[in-house]
Amino acid sequence: MSESPAKPAYSPGLDGVIAGESAICSVQADTGLHYYGYGIEGIADQITFEQVAWLLLHGEMPNPAELKEFARQLAAGAALPPAIVQMLKCFPKGTRAMDYLRTGISALSAFDPDLGHVDHAANLRKTIRLISRMTSVTTAGWRVLHGQEPIVTGDMPLSARLLMGISGQKPEEWVVRVMDTVMNLYAEHEFNASTFAARVTASTLADIYPAIVTALGALEGPLHGGANERAMTMLRNVGLAKNAEPWVKAALAKREKIMGFGHRVYKKGDSRVPVMRQLLAEICRRKGDNTLLEVCQELERVMEKEKGLFANLDLYAAPVLNLLEIPPELNTPLFACARVAGWCAHVIEQQDHNRIIRPRSLYTGPAPRSM
Ligand code: COA
Predict the structure, then answer these.
(1) Does 331 have pLDDT greater than 90?
(2) Taking CA atoms, which of 125, 208, 215, 318 is between 20 and 30 Å from 108?
(3) Are strands 38-39 and 32-35 parallel, antiparallel or unpaired?
(4) The model's pTM
(5) CB of 272 closer than 6 angstroms to any ligand 1 atom
(6) Is 27 in the pocket of ligand 1 (CB under 6 A)?
């Protein structure tokens, strides 16, 4: 009797599967998050988003001249073609931010003189426009859909431009520093779903624009980037720390996922959380109101007790952004404004050493049969 062939190895959700090589970032349960070897806790609140973006794209910290030129190029790329602003004005009221952002970035490809060129130099030029304009589309779309004119302020650092593009007010220095830290924490995270999706598209030698649009599509779901908007809804619903335990127990009894908890890699805690928790504590102290910090910490206690699960970055990003007066509907687009640096770094790395990403499936359908 012939033996049936051994089933090939299969890991649902690709859990634990090594799906490629990358020098950009390492995510480990025990040693945490590193960008090109720099531990996130050592750099997140020490350097600007421009420095982090350069590091992710070039593998080294920029020298002062490189940083100045990079900031100049990012600023120069900020303005949107008038047709894109016109297009944003055509969307119906209530269009979700991730929908106008994804569509806006896709439409911008038609205006890029390097479209269709996938060599390293062209990818770097398009990356600068993509990083700059992810923020421009996010802010312009938000203002347009709220009956206001977009504000184009290319002559300031990206985090300041992001804040001013939403509120219309020049942000205070400390707020810009907080936003830089948030952006730095969100900038890159190895083979997360959106980055992997971008690499799959890039591996067909498609342009960087469709790769980034693919990433934006993957980002919006609640199990990935969409969690930071929903975490804010949860914090509002819980309200006070004393409500956290009954609220969590009721949600778990309905088998609901608690937003901002759990992670595929970090099983003993997300290495970005201590920095973000500290940031929240500082903002709460400035505002003289610890409510959101107390709610988050109580949720952490209850989730560890009930499920053995730990907070991820999105739990603490939600209240930080809320206290900076960012509308929660922009939490996920803001994640995209930062992560676009990591996405582009990965697309470039993929296309520099390309082999098409084409895995196999384990067939579970009927055996061969006739009509
Ligand atoms: N709330 C409730 N239960 C959760 C949970 C959460 N946030 N996260 C994981 N679980 C449960 C799973 O349902 C699973 O339970 P089961 O064994 O009874 O089926 C168990 O914990 C183990 O899950 P795990 O295999 O570790 O999750 P994953 O790697 O497949 O998924 C996430 C990881 C991040 C998608 C998942 O934790 C999640 O949905 N979190 C909430 C959304 C979120 O915050 N996303 C942002 C991630 S940075």
Answers:
(1) yes
(2) 318
(3) antiparallel
(4) 0.97
(5) no
(6) no
